[in-house]
Amino acid sequence: DDWTVITVQCPGVKIQDIRVEYCDGPRQGKIQIDRKEALGVQPLQWEHPIHFDSPHEFVPSETRCEDGLLLVKFRSFQPQLQVFQMGQGSQPCRMALDDGGEPSEKRKAMSQAEEGRSSASS
Fold first, then answer.
1. Which 3 state secondary structure label does DSSP give 15?
2. Is 52 exposed, middle or buried (0-12, 13-18, 19+ CB in 10 A)?
3. What is the DSSP letter of 42?
4. Is 113 helix (H, G, I), strand (E, B) or coil?
5. Which pTM does this prediction carry?
6. Which residue, of 13, 58, 94, 100, has the greatest Cβ tally within 10 A?
7. HSE-up of residue 119 (Cα within 13 Å, Cβ side)
8. 66's torsion region: left (phi>0), alpha (psi -120 to 50) or beta?
């Protein structure tokens, strides 16, 4: 595997003060630090943009924050082609439900049209 490690010196920061946002679609994100005030440590808010020119995934299990040093790890990968052949077999498509748990009006109309074609061909 090919790893990219972003290293940040951040004294007084705890792992709970760190937020990593990353989306591989646009291959960008950000690291945010919101250090809380503590004895001898001033509060701090800091943000760093992330951008890659190739596909990467954030690996939280490999990310560490110890002794004032944050290591944020990303692994590069090769996207795999996914091919789905639609229409195999004789199973008709089922209506999908929209967020309200009811079939949407457009899906109802499509389903009714499909049923009409099925009846006409019988």
1. helix
2. middle
3. -
4. helix
5. 0.62
6. 13
7. 6
8. beta
